[in-house]
Specification:
The complex is a heterodimer. By secondary structure, chain A is α+β, with helices and mostly antiparallel strands. Helix content of chain A is 28%, strand content 33%. Chain A contains nine helices and 22 strands. In chain A, the strands form six sheets. In chain A, strands 17-14-18-19-13-20-21-22 form an eight-stranded mixed sheet, sandwiched between helices. In chain A, strands 4-3-1-10-9-8 form a six-stranded antiparallel sheet. Chain A has a two-stranded antiparallel sheet with strand order 2-7. In chain A, strand 9 and strand 10 form a beta hairpin. By secondary structure, chain B is mainly α. Chain B has one domain. In chain B, 85% of the residues lie in helices and 0% in strands. In chain B, helix 1 packs antiparallel against helix 6. The model of chain B has no long low-confidence stretch (mean pLDDT 88). The chains are: A alpha+beta, B mainly alpha. The interface between A and B is medium-sized, with 19 and 21 residues.
Chain lengths: 311, 173
């Protein structure tokens, strides 16, 4: 609830009051709030999806609400978040991610910033302690931790599972010893750092390099903190894979997430294929929402052998 | 005779004090404007070179500025951290209206500060810097005017106080 308080603080007063009034939401866990200009307020919970009503009519989000939300989310200082806006999202205190959609301002063919923001998607960061414990034994081979990739489409709980795996390895849960884990938290979603203190439980042996590009952050941690494991969220850019390559040569175990559906889809990506080849005896976990967010469907090793399959 | 003497002394002292107060009021206003100017300058540097968010930077500046400026910056920083307003403009304006009552700032000064608040929190740093430059220009100009006025009329205010007291005493006697 304390984590959710951060979100209340950042919402426009009208929206906050409307959400607090909604009795159906009281016993459910809000996962996503979407504000779209002149369209109904949308809420997704762990149980259902809702368009909030105002009596018989739908509760409409005005342009003013969007403007207020953007101001509050950006700490009334959007100039300080230009880089994040270019990417189309912002991570706010508590590790919650806010996606923006609007009119792109281009400079030299590249997005300089966003104007006339028309849609906001607030994704509430969820900490599900214990969701990774069951899968820790699958990540070991002859008592050695394997490189691990967590794969799923958006919204299936990759970051949540990654965070809990980090916590387990840092505490030494379901493994022989505890490990020094270095986390590159580029968007502040894994550890949700506030004034240098993680707001999520990521274990006692975890060091966080926040707000740093993944490739640079991985090498920085490798040099500075001598970690056993380096964890990063959402590999995707060319530079990320180059950083991973250096890391694999450095003898550190990598745990990461990536967008994808299945092994076939993953192998169609040449960068991914090369990386998987280099990850000798690695593990690939595929998630879905079939039995709720964070359902582990399959675990493969990088030799092409299926280690687990949900029936 | 003694009572008349005491009365005359009290009248002259009172009018002299009024003269002093008149000059002091201008001095205090100038000092307050000076502190605000210092704060805005610090703010400009922090925004231009470090891109620090407003809440954080105003909190830092409040420790480096005195009087009403320090108070206002601290209050704005607190309200921003707590997200107590729907916009930066709203927080900036309401704070200055409240704090302004306890200050020597005039309605025009407060109007200029409020106008500046309307540009706070915008995306472009250049636009932000432009509006800060405008406010700085106003603050410097007013301080200069007050200084000139004090140089020119400062003694006049004291003399007027003393002389009006003497005039009153003579008339009454």
């Amino acid at each position: 609830m304390e984590i959710f308080e951060e979100v209340w603080r950042l919402l426009p007063f009208d929206v906050k009051n409307r959400l607090k009034e909604e009795t159906t939401l009281r016993n459910e866990q809000i996962q996503e709030i979407r504000l779209r200009a002149l369209r109904p307020l949308f809420v997704k919970t762990n149980k259902n999806k809702y368009f909030l009503k105002d009596g018989e009519k739908e509760w409409i989000v005005s342009s003013r609400h969007i403007k207020e939300a953007v101001e509050k989310l950006g700490g009334y200082s959007l100039y300080a978040f230009e880089e994040e806006l270019k990417q189309g999202y912002l991570t706010v205190s508590g590790g919650h991610r806010v996606g923006f959609c609007g009119k792109a301002v281009l400079e030299g063919g590249k997005v300089k910033t966003l104007r006339q923001i028309s849609s906001l998607n607030i994704r509430i960061a969820g900490e599900v302690k214990g969701c990774g414990e069951e899968w820790i034994p699958y990540l070991f081979e002859n008592n050695g931790l394997c490189h691990t990739l967590i794969v799923s489409p958006p919204g299936c709980g990759k970051t949540t599972l990654l965070r809990d795996i980090i916590r387990c390895l840092s505490y030494g849960i379901n493994c022989r010893e505890s490990y020094n884990v270095g986390v590159v938290d580029e968007r502040g979603e894994i550890a949700a750092m506030k004034d240098g203190v993680p707001q999520m439980d990521i274990g006692p042996c975890t060091d966080v390099q926040e707000n740093c590009p993944k490739a640079e952050g991985m090498l920085f941690l490798l040099r500075s903190m001598t970690p056993d494991i380096i964890a990063v969220d959402e590999l995707g850019k060319e530079a990320d894979f180059m950083g991973v390559e250096e890391l694999l040569h450095g003898g550190v175990t990598l745990i990461s997430t990536v967008h994808g559906n299945d092994m076939d889809g993953l192998l169609k990506n040449t960068k991914m294929q090369t990386m998987l080849k280099k990850m000798e005896n690695g593990r690939v976990l595929f998630l879905s929402k079939r039995c709720g967010v964070g359902t582990v469907e399959e675990i493969w090793d990088t030799q092409g052998k299926k280690r687990f399959e949900r029936r | 005779m003694i009572i008349q003497g005491i009365g005359a002394f009290l009248i002259v002292s009172a009018t002299t004090l009024v003269g002093f107060a008149f000059a002091a009021k201008e001095k205090y206003r100038r000092n307050e404007l000076g502190e605000i100017e210092r704060g805005i300058l610090l703010m400009k540097n922090q925004i231009s070179y470090l891109g620090t968010p407003l809440g954080e930077l105003l909190g830092q500046i409040s420790w480096k500025t005195e009087g009403v400026a320090g108070l206002a910056f601290q209050e704005i920083a607190n309200r921003m951290e707590e997200r107590q307003g729907n916009s930066a403009e709203e927080i900036w304006e309401s704070t200055w209206v409240e704090v302004g009552k306890k200050s020597y700032l005039t309605a025009v000064d407060l109007e200029e500060l409020t106008a500046f608040g309307r540009t706070l929190g915008f995306l472009e740093k250049e636009q932000q810097e432009g509006s800060m430059d405008m406010l700085l220009h106003y603050l410097r100009e007013v301080q200069e005017k007050i200084s000139k006025r004090l140089d020119k009329n400062g003694r006049l205010y004291y003399s007027m106080g003393v002389l009006s007291g003497l005039l009153l005493v003579i008339t009454l006697l």
